[in-house]
User: What shape does this take?
Amino acid sequence: MTPVFANSAFVSAPERLVVRGGGWNLLHLKVRYGVYQHPAAGLVLIDTGYGPRVTEGPGRSLPLRLYANLLRPKLVEEHQPARVLDRLGARPADVTAIVLTHFHADHVAALHLFPEARVYAKAATLARIQARSRFANLRHGIFDELLPHDLATRTVDIDRLSVRAAPHGLGQGADLFGDGTLLAVDLPGHAEGHFGICFAELPMPLLYAVDAQWCAAALEPGKAPGLPAALVSSDRRALASSTRRVAAFREQGGDVLLCHDPSVSPYDLPGPPK
Assistant: This one.
């Protein structure tokens, strides 16, 4: 099956904040998450996108309310996980695995809908999050109130899986399901433990590079944004290196999809959001 990516929300930002040399025109950035039917592992989500727990959930902490008020994500109801799964003839209970590329709010907000799913993530990163105070996590862009209390007990540590070479010189990737179809490739710099997913067996291999950049235009030489966008990254030098690797993969003939790129992708779930 070819993966499909739903758009959980839009977040608007001036182009010049996400592409060096861009204008002041507003871009409506998407907040994608993926759905993939694996022949053996079952129904898989890649992250979970934004959801009401960020924008209106009862009992939200003050920092989470401030975060939502600052970014003002506009949820796309038709592309919330339960609605998307119903459209695909499935239910949340049918999701057997979630690949969690990193722990920012726009990737974990709907984790609570899948209490039985295995979660493929970096266990060391999760352990650091759980060992820190809430305030310390905020400095890393983490809202631990969005993470299920039993997350560690359901986590499959991708760093303990066997590795395979990803195509087009991308490097090694953790073989998530043991058949080479999905490879978790480290793309450090944006956040702790950030990795992308390479669909290595597609006719044109696809790299879901998540937040290696926000816009595809920023993969071009000299187009990666500087300040203030760079302040969001956990390691600016590592992010620049990851950006170059993603761009090289694309130049070698691979396809690249980013979580927030506003353009329409052939992998996007068809539907009303544009």
Q: What stands out?
A: The first strand starts at residue 4 and ends at 14. The longest helix spans residues 236-251.
